[in-house]
Specification:
Helices cover 73% and strands 0% of the residues. The chain is elongated, with a radius of gyration of 24 Å. The C terminus is likely disordered. By secondary structure, the chain is an all-alpha fold. The two termini are 27 Å apart. It has one domain. It contains six helices and no strands.
């Protein structure tokens, strides 16, 4: 009996990637990167932090978060392409945006906890910064400031979430172009 020498065992097709679950896990990791950088800055007394140090830490935080987001999107794209043969720009973009949304939710929760229990003096610092800005603008209606101050935690938490989504929107749009996987049009012709 002659064995078929060209016989190759069937390779098992990878399981489909759950976009939601993967984005949630990577969103948590992405938020942790930002939280670690915020904690590093919080170890320094506010008076001793120079603008240059704050700028350097901010640039490092941005580089780390963009790098991680790129890695997460690339990993998702590669796994999805292994299942489907390709990954579209829209699929990778929506994954990056979903990851950023989950990251924003975790960051907003951390911001709330930080403002409420860990570092409540931050609210006073924010108020002082607002007052200094308003003085430069020749004043603002005091009723507006009272309304704003009464809801400062909500405004801060909300802006954290919205900021994360906006950054995610921008960077996901840019990074999706380099992480998508086009279908291999010639793969069907390799059998000739």
């Amino acid at each position: 009996m002659e064995e078929n020498q060209n016989f190759q065992p069937e390779t098992q097709k990878p399981e489909p990637v759950s976009k939601f679950n993967s984005a949630a896990v990577n969103g948590l990791k992405l938020a942790m990167i930002s939280i670690v950088f915020m904690l590093v800055l919080s170890f320094f007394p506010k008076e001793s932090i120079s603008k240059m140090l704050a700028f350097i830490v901010t640039i490092l935080k941005l580089a780390a978060t963009v790098s991680f987001l790129w890695w997460a999107m690339k990993t998702f794209s590669d796994r999805n392409a292994a299942v489907n043969g390709f990954t579209t720009y829209g699929n990778v973009f929506s994954y990056g945006l979903l990851t950023s949304l989950f990251s924003g939710i975790v960051l907003a929760a951390y911001t709330f906890i930080n403002l409420r229990w860990i570092s409540p003096e931050s609210i006073d610092q924010i108020k002082q910064a607002i007052e200094q800005t308003m003085e430069k603008m020749n004043g603002v209606d005091s009723s507006f400031l009272d309304l704003y101050y009464n809801n400062l935690e909500i405004w801060t938490v909300g802006s954290t979430l919205i900021g994360a989504v906006i950054y995610g929107l921008i960077f996901s749009a840019i990074l999706a172009a380099s992480t998508k996987k086009n279908p291999d049009m010639m793969s069907g012709y390799n059998n000739f």
